[in-house]
Specification:
Elements lengths: L12 H13 L3 H35 L7
Length: 70
């Protein structure tokens, strides 16, 4: 079993979050914002692709059409 080094007092979650932000995340804030923006673009693109493909599946499965359109 391990014993805490600071005499048993555990830091608060707020203090740990501040330490994590200052020490590791703050220097990379530009990349974090860029990653969030790109994830939003990817999500919107995926939603758009699904919306574009919806009529194709609706015609095949609801209409029961099996004819090939060339």
């Amino acid at each position: 079993m391990t014993v805490p080094a600071s005499g048993g007092a555990t830091p608060s979650p707020r203090r740990l979050s501040a330490w994590l932000w200052r020490g590791y995340l703050a220097p990379e804030w530009r990349m974090i914002v860029l990653a969030l923006l790109l994830m939003a673009v990817e999500g919107a693109t995926l939603g758009g692709l699904a919306a574009m493909m919806e009529p194709m599946f609706d015609r095949v499965f609801r209409g029961g059409g099996t004819r090939r359109h060339c």
